[in-house]
């Protein structure tokens, strides 16, 4: 894929970019490595001041940054601005808590190991490569960059090829925030250059958010090189509604959970698993609410759902829907692309999904919801867990015993009860099964990019 800004609302190419040569990439890795040798020794207070200054710039420029995001990948202006401000919040969180999270962990009685002093100390790993997707072009990057920089690492960013302006902005805003040259660099390169970067001995770790095939590739290369990785991959998140739930609240939240970011979110609820006692009520209200959403220009405040980010992305969604329909699934609303320029797809609800349909287990990366009717809690859990993914999960119930079952038995990195899955700086974020491994955010996220060194003093 060429490195270019293509407006998904029109299909027009706005700007193209030149890919870095292999020699230029090697030079930039060298700059990063040399910078890390000095930056790793800077005190936490100095790093925090730089991160706060960068957050100040991002907040000041949030409106312009939002328009850039919307132009590159089609999210609504309101959601783009919220993303920019969320990044600033995440930066301040790590600026304020990193020293606490990475404080030495002394053994209370070192004499038990024959020492006068014994402890664990967190130290930065070095140059970290981040391979990032387009759907949250700033927030996905900041979940890695803020903790990595506060831990004393330096970062290299290989962003998705369709959001180059966002990628370059991130390098620029860190530079203007005062970070020394080489602390954070954007590499405008294609996917084929990722492997030689990962195999460069000066690159010590990698983090990837993206598809399962991309994660497998990065993990295999880093495994061969014995380098640490954090992977956040796809999700086909369940959204379970039980009879004791507040159905109106569950429906309202379900709509947001499915169409957030135009339906292009790994943690979006995708499979709506509803107890038979409330299925008809939930389905009727959910379909009505999805049908009422306004699809259109993402720069228009009246728009609820903008275009999908790429033409191929829309094609992928259409193929999954067509596969389900050919197998007997029922389209309750949507299901056909509108006759207009751009890569739009309507909010869609499909029922009567069976196990032989791809949609039963595969992730639909667009505003398409699948409805399942279940007889009881056990069947709800069975359907919820019948996927190779395990990123987020949602369950609605007022029954304490049911809630505990969902917390313990939903196979996911996250479970949200009577709400929708959201990423917060304060909470660990990540998945199980083929949704990846490792954690971002919270104290766990910053420690992923550190060596926990054991110290023993006789």
UniProtKB/TrEMBL annotation:
Which SUPFAM superfamilies does the UniProt record give?
Answer: ALDH-like
* A Pfam cross-reference name: Aldedh
Q: Which InterPro entries match?
A: Ald_DH/histidinol_DH, Ald_DH_C, Ald_DH_CS_CYS, Ald_DH_N, Aldehyde_DH_dom, ALDH_GabD1-like, GABD/Sad-like
Q: Which residues form a coiled coil?
A: none
Keywords for this protein: NADP, Oxidoreductase
Name the CDD domains for this protein: ALDH_SSADH1_GabD1
RNA-binding is among the record's keywords: no
Residue ranges of domain Aldehyde dehydrogenase in the record? 3-455
Q: PROSITE patterns given for it?
A: ALDEHYDE_DEHYDR_CYS
- Keyword Ribosomal protein set for record: no
NCBIfam families documented for this protein:
PRK09406.1
Q: Which family does it belong to?
A: Belongs to the aldehyde dehydrogenase family.
Protein name from the UniProt record = NADP-dependent succinic semialdehyde dehydrogenase
- Lineage of the native species? Bacteria, Bacillati, Actinomycetota, Actinomycetes, Pseudonocardiales
């Amino acid at each position: 894929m060429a490195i270019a800004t293509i407006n998904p609302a029109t299909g027009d190419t706005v700007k193209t970019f030149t890919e870095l040569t292999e020699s230029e990439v090697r030079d930039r890795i060298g700059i990063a490595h040399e910078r890390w040798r000095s930056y790793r020794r800077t005190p936490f207070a100095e790093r925090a001041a730089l991160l706060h200054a960068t957050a100040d710039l991002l907040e000041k420029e949030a409106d312009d940054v939002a328009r850039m995001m919307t132009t590159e990948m089609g999210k609504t202006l309101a959601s783009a601005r919220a993303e920019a401000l969320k990044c600033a919040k995440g930066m301040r969180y790590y600026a304020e808590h990193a020293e606490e999270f990475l404080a030495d962990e002394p053994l209370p009685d070192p004499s038990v190991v024959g020492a006068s002093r014994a402890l664990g100390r967190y130290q930065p790993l070095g140059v970290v490569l981040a391979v990032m997707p387009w759907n949250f072009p700033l927030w996905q990057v900041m979940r890695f960059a803020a903790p990595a920089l506060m831990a004393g690492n330096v970062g290299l960013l290989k962003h998705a090829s369709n959001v180059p302006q966002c990628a370059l902005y991130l390098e620029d805003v860190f530079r203007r925030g005062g970070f020394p040259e080489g602390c954070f660099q954007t590499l405008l390169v294609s996917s084929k250059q990722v492997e030689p970067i990962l195999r460069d001995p000066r690159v010590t770790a990698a983090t990837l958010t993206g598809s399962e095939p991309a994660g497998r590739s990065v993990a295999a290369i880093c495994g061969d090189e014995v380098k640490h990785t954090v992977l956040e991959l796809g999700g086909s998140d369940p959204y379970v509604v039980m009879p004791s739930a507040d159905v109106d609240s569950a429906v309202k939240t379900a709509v947001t959970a499915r169409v957030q970011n135009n339906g292009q979110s790994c943690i979006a609820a995708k499979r709506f698993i509803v107890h038979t006692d409330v299925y008809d009520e939930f389905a009727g209200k959910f379909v009505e609410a999805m049908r009422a959403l306004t699809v259109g220009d993402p720069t228009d405040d009246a728009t609820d759902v903008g275009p999908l980010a790429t033409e191929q992305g829309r094609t992928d969604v259409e193929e999954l829907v067509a596969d389900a329909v050919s197998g007997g699934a029922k389209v309750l609303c949507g299901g056909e692309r509108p006759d207009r320029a751009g890569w739009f797809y309507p909010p869609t609800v499909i029922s009567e999904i069976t196990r032989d349909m791809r949609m039963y287990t595969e992730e639909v990366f667009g505003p398409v919801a699948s409805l399942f009717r279940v007889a009881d809690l056990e069947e709800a859990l069975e359907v919820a867990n019948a996927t190779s993914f395990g990123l987020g999960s949602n369950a609605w119930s007022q029954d304490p015993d049911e809630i505990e079952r969902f917390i313990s038995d939903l196979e996911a990195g996250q479970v949200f009860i009577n709400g929708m899955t959201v990423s917060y700086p304060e909470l660990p974020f990540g998945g199980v099964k083929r949704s990846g491994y490792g954690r971002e955010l919270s104290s766990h996220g910053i420690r992923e990019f550190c060596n926990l060194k054991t110290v023993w003093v006789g």
